[in-house]
Amino acid sequence: MATINTNMSAKVASNSLVRNDRSMSATMERLSTGLRINSAKDDAAGLAISSKMTSQIRGLDQAVRNANDAISMIQVAEGAMKEVTNMLQRMRELGVQAISDSNTANDRSALNNEYKQLSAEIMRIAENTQWNGTNILDDTIGSSGVSTFQVGANANQTIDVDFGNLAQNASTASWGGANTQNAAVGTITITGGLSDGDVISFKTDAGNFVTVEYTGGNKTKIDAGSGTLAATGTLTNAASATITVAAASTSTITLTDDNSGGTTFSISDLVVSRGTHAPVAATDITTSALAATALGVVDTAIQGVNDTRALLGASMSRLEYASDNLQNVSQNASAARSRVLDADYASETTELARTQIIQQAGTAMLSQANQSQQSVLSLLK
Questions:
Q1: Any idea what DSSP says for residue 45?
Q2: DSSP 112-171
Q3: What CA–CA distances, in Å, run from 332 to 60, 325, 326, 329, 365?
Q4: How many CB atoms within 10 Å of residue 76?
Q5: Per-residue confidence of the chain (381 residues) as pLDDT tens digits?
Q6: In the chain, where does DSSP find H-type helix?
Q7: Reduced 3-state DSSP string for 226-253
Q8: Cβ atoms within 10 A of the Cβ of 165, count?
Q9: N-to-C CA span, the chain
Q10: Beta partners for 188?
Q11: Is the Cβ–Cβ distance between 191 and 202 less than 8 Å?
């Protein structure tokens, strides 16, 4: 039927062009972005799957960086521990030398000067070895020296590393001397307060060492309910009078000579420390007997440092394997996401060529359909 108002051929050609243009636009978008899914309408399920995969991949990649940061952190701690081991070995060497009676008292005093300086340096290293501005060897990092590293894309995928408890240098103690009234009383003043596990050690004028350890949950007051100061060793002065130890807070410790005659006394080598170093602080090598005792204490400290270094080394090895595994998982997850999300250029370029040809053909057919109405004029002549 020949009509003018309705040109069905033109409508068919026009509708075909619209559909082809939509397909060609989608193909060109995929080729320009490299993605098969550019909006939810392209593939709603695929979009949801690829989005979850992206979260997992980005989490895995960050976990790899976390593991590498943890390895670097452990390397800092282990490097410091290595130097502590070297110093403890030197202290042991000095102790062995001081035991021999070929040394005079002056010789042992000179040896002891180096021994004590090395002991003080171990404390300084414990307080000044830091990662990202945080001490890592004085048992304050993380939870009681145990740090938790996130090594997974999801919560609770962690590795714990114990950095050990080498020493502390945050608190200092000073001796005010003893005065005599009815009894001799002296006060140790602590600057910086005490924490659980802190050990105050000092040497009496009778030549023996005494250690006082703070334990308890309350850091502001030491009493029977919240913590105790437990002294070990015999605290005597030159006259062999027994001295009692008492404390009312984390800032003062009172030493009282129970001799009613009020014999005075003094202490020296006053140190606040904790952990591996604390027993070492309560030693010196001024006599053959003290040097022999110090030898056993230093041996124990060396073993303690070696144990910590072994744990740190094992943790580094574990984290390296964890990092490698995370990279493999991320790589495979990326490949899986690519199959869902990325455009297949071979397929899309073929589709583009097809739609371009159809566009050209459709345009030509639309032109022909519009011209076909002209034939109706011949019927009117």
A1: H
A2: HHHHHHHHHHHHHHHHH-EETTEESSBS-STBTTEEEEE-SSSTT-EEEEE--B----S-
A3: 11, 11, 10, 5, 49
A4: 16
A5: 666 777 778 888 888 888 888 888 888 888 988 888 888 888 899 999 999 999 999 999 999 999 999 999 999 999 999 999 999 999 999 999 999 999 999 999 999 999 999 999 999 999 999 999 999 998 888 887 899 999 999 999 999 999 999 998 778 888 876 666 556 777 888 888 777 788 888 888 778 888 888 776 433 334 333 455 666 666 665 555 555 666 555 677 777 766 545 567 778 899 999 999 999 999 999 999 999 999 999 999 999 999 999 999 999 999 999 999 999 999 999 999 999 988 888 988 988 898 888 888 888 888 887 777 777 677 666
A6: 8-33, 44-99, 105-128, 278-281, 288-341, 345-372, 375-379
A7: CCEEEEECCCECCCCCEEEEEECCCCEE
A8: 21
A9: 18
A10: 175, 253
A11: no
The structure tokens 């130097």 sit at 83
Residue type, 48: A
Which pair of tokens denotes residue 153?
Answer: 């894309």
Angle in degrees, CA 271, 293, 227, rounded to 5: 40
Phi, psi of 61 (to 5 degrees): -65, -40
The amino acid occupying position 327 is Q
Query: 3-class DSSP state for residue 361?
Result: helix
Token look-up 């109706």 returns: 376
Please give the helix or strand (H or E) that residue 204 lies within, else none: strand 199-204
279 Cα distance to chain centroid: 28
- Here the tokens at position 53 are 């995969």
The two structure tokens encoding residue 49: 């799957």
Structure tokens at 103: 């040394």
Residue with tokens 């397909």: 23
Do the Cβ atoms of 95 and 285 come closer than 8 Å?
A: yes
